[in-house]
Structure formats: structure tokens, C-alpha cells
Design a protein that fits this description.
Layout lengths: L1 H10 L1 H10 L1 H11 L9 H24 L1 H9 L1
Helix pairs in contact: 4-5
């Protein structure tokens, strides 16, 4: 199984570069802002709501940084 996974990684080396630039910083932000180093719950049905709240908080904070708070509030009220 590990050899198969390594073969896929080797075939798609650029995908790993894209992932490191796009996905990994978000998880690093989760850890830094929210202390999400591990989950207290186990199994996906229990962890999914916690992850969803982290993603919502991240998106709101990021949107307020990009658009400004006043514009974000106006968009939410529309």
C-alpha cells in the first residue's frame, strides 16, 4: 500500500507543490488561530461539525480581511 501511494506521489509531484501552497497554510492557520491540533471527538460523524465550524470561522475572518468588515456585513444583509 505504501509503495502504491509513493508511486502516485512520484507521478504527480506538481500536485504536492500546489497542495503545499493552497491547502497546508489553511490547516496551519486552524492550528494557530483555533488550537485545532487534534479533535476531542472520534469518527467522522462527530468530527465533521467541529471542522465545519472551523472552516466557517476561517472563511468569515478571511472574507473580512479581503473585503472589509462593512462590505461583508452589507453582503450578508442583502
Amino acid at each position: 500500500m505504501l509503495e502504491g501511494m509513493q508511486a502516485r506521489v512520484d507521478r504527480m509531484a506538481e500536485a504536492g507543490i500546489v497542495r503545499r501552497r493552497t491547502v497546508e497554510p489553511v490547516f496551519g492557520t486552524f492550528k494557530a488561530w483555533m488550537g485545532a491540533t487534534h479533535f476531542l471527538m472520534k469518527t467522522m460523524p462527530n468530527v465533521r461539525p467541529v471542522v465545519s465550524l472551523h472552516v466557517l470561522a476561517y472563511n468569515l475572518k478571511r472574507s473580512s480581511q479581503l473585503l472589509g468588515v462593512q462590505q461583508l456585513i452589507a453582503l450578508m444583509q442583502a
